[in-house]
Design goal:
By secondary structure, this protein is α+β, with helices and mostly antiparallel strands. It is built from 7 helices and 7 strands; from the N terminus they run βαββααββααβαβα. The chain has 3 domains: 61 residues, no CATH class; 42 residues, no CATH class; 70 residues, no CATH class. A 3-stranded antiparallel beta sheet has the order 1-2-3. It has a two-stranded antiparallel sheet with strand order 4-5.
């Protein structure tokens, strides 16, 4: 569909008004209502034809395009092309989307876990008491950060986050109290 009207004409027209278009197959001028053109634009179907005969020609023709991910050539019907990203297979589409829009940034969720593991090792090797700092429970303790990991900038090195002066041993109950603001060392 090639519009033969101006933007202003389209805006000024009523929904029932007929507007001129040119068929993309036979180049013949035909008319459609503003409502039908509007619906076509909403569906992002830019390849509207003047007749069923031209539509069938359009559906039978195919064009060669490049896969956005692997850059191999493949054919598609023009009516099947709805976006700038075209893929030769579902595998390429999935790979592209996983690469472009990862669910998790590299190091995003593993970073705090590795910081915690390093903190446990540093505290264990420091010689500090291996019991709860608050209640002195010694059967099990967790290493807690006095200043939480989330309060540090993202690019802070683990050596600063896990400074021995920022680490404290707490039992699970006292650790929960500290995390929820009921206790501060």
């Amino acid at each position: 569909m090639i519009p033969l009207y101006s933007y202003r004409t389209f805006e000024d027209a009523e929904f029932k008004d007929l507007l001129p278009l040119r068929c993309c197959i036979c180049q013949q001028v035909f008319y459609r209502t503003k409502k039908r053109i509007h619906d076509t634009i909403e569906r992002k179907d830019s390849l509207q034809t003047c007749s069923i005969k031209c539509r069938s020609i359009l559906r039978k023709t195919s064009i060669t395009v490049l896969c956005t991910f692997c850059h191999t050539k493949f054919t598609r019907r023009p009516s099947a092309i709805r976006s700038k990203n075209l893929f030769c297979s579902k595998t390429c589409a999935i790979s592209y989307n996983n690469h472009q829009f990862p669910k998790r940034q590299p190091g995003q969720s593993t970073m705090p876990n590795s910081i915690r593991a390093i903190a446990r090792r540093i505290y264990r090797n420091s010689g500090k008491p291996q019991s709860c700092y608050k209640c002195k429970y010694d059967k099990y303790y967790e290493v807690a950060h006095i200043r939480p990991i989330s309060k540090f900038p993202k690019n802070t090195p683990p050596s600063i986050i896990n400074d021995i002066n920022n680490l404290i041993a707490l039992c699970p109950n006292c650790h929960w109290e500290m995390d929820n603001g009921l206790y501060s060392p």
